[in-house]
Specification:
This protein has 111 residues and is of the alpha+beta class. The protein has a single domain, classed as 2-Layer Sandwich (HIT family, subunit A). It has 3 helices and 5 strands; from the N terminus they run αβββααββ. β1 and β2 form a beta hairpin. The longest helix has 17 residues. Bound molecules: adenosine monophosphate. The site of adenosine monophosphate has 13 residues, from loops.
């Protein structure tokens, strides 16, 4: 499967579709999931086009991967979740339940 530049998260990144933004820096955008499954349910997406976590892990350079995970940690801290419990999930492929084919993490918490 090839990356589709017109997927919904690509459109959010281009500003063509609005989102409820939580955090943004040069590397990531984070926004509230439109259909929350927990009290806190946000999505964290890289600004670069990766299909899924495998594409990201295989093809993103080390600096970008490092910056991505540092951004995830920054978001966790900003939301006050570092000392609380939370879940991070990602779906990979249709068989893994992925619906939007731009790599994203779900960050879920009950606060
Ligand atoms: P998945 O690809 O299975 O990880 O799921 C995609 C997630 O994106 C789902 O939890 C949707 O509720 C969420 N989603 C889809 N469209 C939007 C949108 N426009 N804004 C925010 N979240 C969305």
């Amino acid at each position: 499967m090839r990356y589709d530049k017109e997927n919904i998260f690509a459109k959010i990144l281009k500003g063509e579709i609005p989102c409820d933004k939580v955090f943004e820096n040069n590397n990531v955008l984070s926004f509230k999931d439109i259909n929350p499954q927990a009290k806190t349910h946000i999505l964290i997406i890289p600004k670069r086009p990766f299909l899924d976590i495998s594409d990201f892990l295989q093809n993103a350079d080390n600096l970008y991967q490092s910056n991505f995970w540092k951004s995830v940690d920054e978001i966790i801290n900003i939301l006050g979740l570092r000392d609380k419990g939370f879940q991070i999930k990602t779906h990979k492929g249709k068989d893994g339940g992925q619906e939007v084919f731009h790599f994203h993490l779900h960050l879920l918490a009950e606060i």
